[in-house]
Amino acid sequence: MNKGKVVLIGGSGVTDSPGFKDLEWKVQETDIPTIHPVTRQVVGTGRVSYQEREDGVIFIKRHGRSDSKLGTKGYGPSVTEYAANLVAARILGASVVIASSAVGSLQEEIPVGSLVVPDDYVDESLRNDNLFGLEIRTHTNRRPAFSKKVRRILINVGEDGFGKFDKVVKSATYVCIPGDSFGTAAEGIKRAQYADIVGMTACPEASMAQQLGLHYAIAAFPVDHDADANHEGGTLAVMKELSKHDRVPEYINEVLEAAKRIAVRAPRLDQLVGNVIPGDASAIENIYLRAIAEDIMQKYCS
User: Fold this and answer.
1) Where are the domains of the chain?
2) CATH class of the domain whose range is 5-300
3) Which range, 63-72, 115-124, 132-141, 156-165, has the best average confidence (pLDDT)?
4) For the chain, which terminal residue's Cβ has fewer other Cβ atoms within 10 angstroms, N or C?
């Protein structure tokens, strides 16, 4: 595997990033099915569409792309191909993953139009976050929940942004809900007691990234207050404003430039050190996960 690359996983709040707009879309096979949590039907293709710049920085749309020629689909948060996206990132050579996420603010002091770099999360998504479990087991220590090195980049670039954001919030708890519906009023009141922002995509993405040995952190952008969440209201207007070239896209591009410098020599994840139980990787049927498992065992068990 060619390593040391940076992958940007872009959510619904970021449609483009400088340097990607005119690039060809390609597909990475992962052979990882996505199972609907209720019907138990296979809904995902495991085919991840991506773009890659000349410098090796890769863009993956979190919710996929509907493209009949490439055989790819688009997905809502409840059935997004989280595992396939991250396994594709690993196959393509990523050591660092930057995730962008449009969220709702649960606190008055976190305004719409700000940048939030969460340092913890509460998982209420009800999604299975286990990638392995057969032979190799990763008892990931999710404290901290995100990469300190990547969070520092997100914060530093944000603070140097000279007005790109109304506020830079350097510590916050992200509560991840199942989607695709917004929460009720009572749920919002409850969640505001223990979280600062609410979204639909941090989980199982964050946990899976750590299991794969990826340095991962989230740049979250509040596009509404939880009580006012409504795509037909002001939310889309805020997302459009944040998507202007000199706002989120320019910020993301600067983040990617900084992330490239740590990706080449990204250290082992502290969250995995001492927490990988080795086994016979040949028992893993998926050839991509098998190769990743072998790499992880070599890196963390030798």
Assistant:
1) 5-300
2) alpha beta
3) 115-124
4) C
